[in-house]
Amino acid sequence: MIAPVELLVACLYMHRSESRHAGEPFRNQEVILPAHDFAGALGVQPDLQLVTKTLKDLCTTGLIRFGYPHATEHRLRDGLQLNVSQQPVLLSPELSDTRNELWGRVASSIHLKPGDLLGSHFSVLSERARHGIEEALKQLGENFKELRCLERLPHGNLRPTIETLTRIASEAGTDGELREIMRSCARQLRIGSALGTEWTRVTPREAALIHRLERDGLIARAALRADLERVRELLAPYGLTARIESIARSDDPAPLSPQSGDRERIAPIRIGTKYTNSSMFGLSSHYLASILRDPDFASEVHDKASESVRGFVERLRDIRQRYEREDVTMKYVVARQDKLLADLIQGLST
């Protein structure tokens, strides 16, 4: 009795052998090669699960570092199970100028389908393309070895720093190597601030540059105490106020403490709420839903600005609902909530 996996592999090899004669090119026909054919290039044993996991890790890193060609978007997006909220920053147009030929070669050929009958596989048109993928996998594996997640994001407002790094990298006189480092740093800071540090991959030199920018005060620090009054002034017409509270950077549910990596942030609250010990950022989606049902709050939505405030509360509710379904991490929630508030304040200030 032939095992299903062995039968599948045999069929795939038959598909490949029928597409060409021995020693001849593939005749420009698309040929499917099972992922474990590339186990040697990946430096692992030809085990289906191990090869698939290794490929997913490699593709996640490639995606974080370089994005991916739009023609392959759905393959990698579905294979890595990206959710809708992760896609915009990973595909952001201002980040698409970071290119890598090796990654492009792999991304354009791979099909990440761990739950599919065929499993993960590559599509190739020639022996040369096959060898190109093998070499690309080997080289990317070596290049990615030195990459690590950022231990933490710098304190403060990262937007000016990201814009400065991007601007310097685009100037004609910037050295090629420095341009690449600055582009990568800008990309990693932008992705990290939106999705959390687990979605960052930096080289030691890039991590050192980010650390130096923070050490030398070149990353703008948020003046929360001064900003608080401005936020209250902007939100007051819509039945909201704000206060400063602390939140842990980690997913550790333990009580907040200096050792747990707290940070201060501005948290909006409903004026006159009976839940005086809570904020919109600290409560469940049920609280946010109750605000949206409040007739007084609904009556305040009478112009574009107050519609933005209502949309802000609705998006907060959606984020909390996703977290309550255990679909995202607390780091994701914190990053998205902070960004929503920053976008709201910027919108109300214009």
Architecture blueprint of SSEs:
Layout: H1 4-18, E1 31-34, H2 39-42, H3 48-66, H4 73-79, H5 87-90, H6 101-107, E2 110-111, E3 121-124, H7 127-144, H8 159-170, H9 176-195, H10 204-215, H11 224-235, E4 240-248, E5 262-270, H12 285-293, H13 295-299, H14 304-324, H15 330-349
Antiparallel strand pairs: 1-3, 2-3, 4-5
Report what the structure shows:
This protein has 350 residues and is mainly α. The chain has 15 helices and 5 strands. The protein has helices at residues 4-18, 39-42, 48-66, 73-79, 87-90, 101-107, 127-144, 159-170, 176-195, 204-215, 224-235, 285-293, 295-299, 304-324, 330-349; strands spanning 31-34, 110-111, 121-124, 240-248, 262-270. The strands form 2 sheets. It has a 3-stranded antiparallel sheet. Helix 6 (101-107) crosses helix 7 (127-144) and helix 8 packs antiparallel against helix 9 (176-195). Mean pLDDT is 79; it is low at 1-25 and 249-261.
